[in-house]
Every structure is written in structure tokens, then in C-alpha cells.
Amino acid sequence: MEDTLLTTTCQRWRLGRDSRRPAAEPINTARYACDEIDERAAKRFVLTHHYARSYPAARIRIGLFRAGAGLVGVAVFATPMNNATINKYLDAQDGCELGRLVLLDDVEANGETWFLGRCFRILRQRHPHIGGIVSYSDPLPRTTVQGELIKPGHIGTIYQASNARYVGRATAQTLVLDDAGRVISRRSLSKLRNDERGAAAVYEQLLRAGAPRRKESESGADYCDRAIARGPFRLVRHPGNLTYVWSLNAETTIRLPARPYEKAETIERQQPLFPNATAPLLRRCSDLTPTEER
Hints:
Layout: E1 6-7, E2 10-14, E3 17-21, E4 32-36, H1 39-49, E5 58-66, E6 70-78, H2 85-89, E7 90-91, E8 95-103, H3 111-126, E9 132-137, E10 142-143, E11 149-151, E12 153-154, H4 157-161, E13 165-169, E14 173-177, H5 186-193, H6 199-209, H7 220-230, E15 234-238, E16 242-247, E17 253-254, H8 264-270
Parallel strand pairs: 1-12, 8-9
Antiparallel strand pairs: 2-3, 4-5, 5-6, 6-8, 7-17, 9-16, 10-11, 13-16, 14-15
Helix pairs in contact: 5-6, 5-7
């Protein structure tokens, strides 16, 4: 396996393209500051710079600012897609998922660990009701249909450096990828299948990706199945994200025992790459298995 497909370097973003910085690079913290920011600023930053062009259900948004440059990073602490997630991992009444952590490509490598530590300090001081944080690291690379790598796999190096507890993998799942390697989330497909609020936006997303148009009187479920089967989509089996948990106070305990941190070489032996991540393994989106997603 090429070492660019599963990486321990630090990922950065700008205008939807990722880049790498060496993990040992120091950061001049005197030039940086952190504070909460509003929804509009956080959403604009994430949608502009993160490859997925998607934004989670944010509860708390914290920005990283550099002198002379303004906003150079955003952490979004979100409501988990599955309401049972927090109780599964934390003995707490309230908790969040780290839904997005996006830093621009000119922020030094150690900036992630430093920024995350400052975010946790803000949460403890201003939101003491939040007992802990759950986050996922995705080890599966994403490619375009032509095989161009757009997102390497990750093992959660910065989470390990932040003393997160690794508790194992989340549930295995099947991803729906468009030609550009972007994930069409299971939650989005569910909205369309059931004609829920937001279904129109999902329909437009599928059309932009090359799906056929919906027929008159066609149900959302029938259209969803037909669009995935006949459109330019790839269904790929995912082995499960690596799950990390932090407790933010002495009263909150993590329910699951700590496991040894995963290493890149271990995952490479256990997780063979799907050829260019293009092999269609299922035909119907109704066959997708429930999972925790990021």
C-alpha cells in the first residue's frame, strides 16, 4: 500500500483540497487565539474549505484566529446523528460529537492538538453541562472514479496526542460515493426515501452528482433505489470508524475500557484497500446498514 493512503501526518484544508504538514512541526502559540463564533461564520468556513462540503448539526462552534490573518480554523461540536451515542460511550447527561475540525493549510502541524486543548478549556468554562466528547477517525481513503486520491485514511493521530481514550471501531457500514468521491450520507438518503423535510435538497444533490430525474408519482423510496442503482454511484463497504472519547470533568466516566491505540501499519495489515474504492457491493440504497457516520 502506498503510504499516502493511510497517513499519520496532519491534514489541512483550503477550498476543498487537502494537504499535509509534518507531524513534528511546532506552532508559535503566541500568534493564535480561540473563541466561540457564530453559526454563519463557522458554516461558511467549513463549507468553503472542507472537501465534503457538508456541515453537521452544530451546537457549539469555536474558531482559531491568527494575528494578521483572521479565522484560520474551526471546530464544530455537534449533536450526534444517533441520540444513543453519548450514553453508549459516556456516563453523562449531555455530550457532543466533534463533527468537524478544519484548519487551513498554513497552520502549523501542532496547531490541531493545541487548538483542541483550547476548545476543551472553553467547553469546561462556558458549557460545564457537557460531560464529554466523542469523535471518529475514518481510516478508509476516498478516491474519485478515476482513482485520484482526495482524502487519505486517518488513524486519529491528533486524538491520540490529546490523550483521548480509544474504545474501538464504530459499526461497519456501506458508503454511497459519487464520482468525485463524496459520501451521500445515509441520513440524507433516508430523508429522500421518506419524503421528509430536506428531501428536496437531497434530490438536488443527487441530480448534481448525475442521478436520473424523479418520475411523476414515483415514491421517494422507489426513486432513491433507482437513482443509486442507475446513477454514477459506488457502494463501498466501510470497516467502521475508529472511535475516540474524552471526559471533560471528574464526574463523567467513559463507559468502555481503553484499547491500545491503532497504528497505521496495523490497520494496513487488517484493512486491505478496495480497488480504487470503486467496487459496487450492493445495488439498492434500501440495503444500507444503520451506522454512526461522520
